[in-house]
Structure formats: C-alpha cells, structure tokens
Design a protein that fits this description.
elongated
C-alpha cells in the first residue's frame, strides 16, 4: 500500500507522504504549486516548508499537521488532558444524568399512563447527548476529521461498487 520512503527525513515537495486526514491515501505535490493532494480522499493541502507543516485547504475546519520526520502530528496547543479535565468531563456526563434519573426514580409516573416511558427515555437521552458533546470535544482536540474520513470511505466504496457493476 505505502511506497513512502520518507522515514526520518525533512518535509519536501519531492517526496510522497501518508495522508494525515484519511490515513489510507498518499499525498504528493501538485505540479507547479506549494500544495499537496491525496490520491484517496482527494483533499488539497497547503504546505509550509519552513515550519514543516501542512494545512488542509479545501475544508472549513482549520486542521493542520507538523511533520516530525516519520509521521504527521496534529498541530494544536500543548494543553494536556490531565485528571482535572477528565474529572470535569465525567462530571459533565454523569451529573445531569443522575439528576434526571433520580427525579425519575423519586417521582415515578403512574404505570399505564400514556407517557410513563418518558422519564427513562429522557434520562438515556441526557446521558447520550452529554457523551456526544464530550466525544466531539475530544475529536476536535485531536483533530480527527470524522466526517471527512467517512466521506472518503463512502466515495471509495461507491467507486468499487460501480466498478463491480460495470464489469458484470
């Protein structure tokens, strides 16, 4: 899959690198430009050779990566996910869920009423929505473009399905 020969080298236009977005394709320089493109997800990247960095150019997300000689590292501020942030994230998910769950437990609806299922549903919905918020924050911090990744996989799958239909 990967014919990249770029271990422990500086970032240059002449080389081929693994794509930092989809992790499947390879990026190579576009002729007569300081830009790269991926052969799998078809994203365009602007390159900064002095900073050894790459920034996605065809997306509204300000995603950027730095080349460390072997692979791409997300270029974001050096904030750490210490125990305090982890505790706040767990509290953000569990505290509202427990408040709604305890109120549903202490003030139970009358069995057989039309909306007796609502307190349990509301508790589960509170848990899931707060969990999705925390997951979204973690994904944004590590700059993993889930939507772009799924879009590239879908496009590649559609290509292979159409190829199979064409050959039969």
């Amino acid at each position: 899959m990967s014919n990249c020969k770029n271990n422990n080298k500086i970032f240059s236009i002449e080389e081929v690198y693994n794509c930092p977005v989809c992790y499947h394709g390879e990026i190579s320089a576009i002729t007569l430009m300081d830009a790269f493109s991926c052969n799998f997800c078809h994203h365009i990247f602007s390159a900064d050779m002095e900073k050894q960095s790459l920034k996605i150019a065809d997306s509204s997300s300000p995603l950027s990566w730095k080349w460390n000689g072997k692979k791409w590292k997300a270029d974001h501020p050096q904030a750490e996910w210490n125990w305090m942030i982890q505790l706040l994230a767990v509290g953000f998910v569990l505290l509202p869920t427990m408040l709604i769950g305890l109120s549903a437990y202490f003030f139970t609806p009358i069995p057989g009423t039309p909306l007796c299922w609502l307190p349990i549903f509301w508790t589960v919905l509170t848990f899931l929505s707060h969990l999705v918020i925390i997951i979204n924050i973690v994904v944004d911090y590590y700059q993993f473009p889930v939507k772009l990744y799924l879009k590239a996989l879908g496009r590649n799958l559609w290509f292979w399905i159409s190829l199979q239909n064409y050959s039969t």
